[in-house]
Amino acid sequence: MKTTLQDKKVAILVADGFEQIELDGPRAALEEAGATVDIVSPNPRTVHGVHHGKPAKTLKVQVPLARARPGRYDALLLPGGVMNPDTLRQDRRAVQFARAFFRAHKPVAAICHGPQLLIETGAVRSRRMTSYPSVQTDLKNAGAKWVNREVVEDQGLVTSRQPADIPAFNQRMIRLFARPARRGARGQAK
Q1: What is the dotted CATH code of the domain comprising 9-178?
Q2: 51 an active-site residue?
Q3: Looking at 48, 52, 105, 112, which residue is catalytic?
Q4: What is the pLDDT of residues 76-107, one digit of tens each?
């Protein structure tokens, strides 16, 4: 039986400088599985992607971060890109938005540099995670147990290292997002 995300709503939180393929690939997989997906951004109208540092697509923002409510979503996806998570982790609203998913025990998926935002939420401590190699020291310093694997799942969080890992990341993300909501799970963000 194919995993389905019918009746699931997923927020993709991004700022300018997100890695295009790390949004496009997972977004297509989520939509193919039946999820409704919203681009949420601190930018009110459009957000600009990159492809290995060069300008890529401009996407319409469905929900500006100022109006986004975590309670309206079942799961959160955080694409990477170097600028994107660095911008988001400096935005108090973005940090609060992401933290709310952990507090509500809702699943989160982050790829490449995306986990940098999660450091600011306080939710990485004691979690087994992966990321782009240059982020590993930041994650370790925040208390994560970093491993060099294609995809890692721990306590409702799926992480991957890079665009080459997207097929495995998508499979694991969809399986996680399809599970019933967790109740009273350990690892709640403080």
Answers
A1: 3.40.50.880
A2: no
A3: 112
A4: 999 999 999 999 999 999 999 999 999 999 99
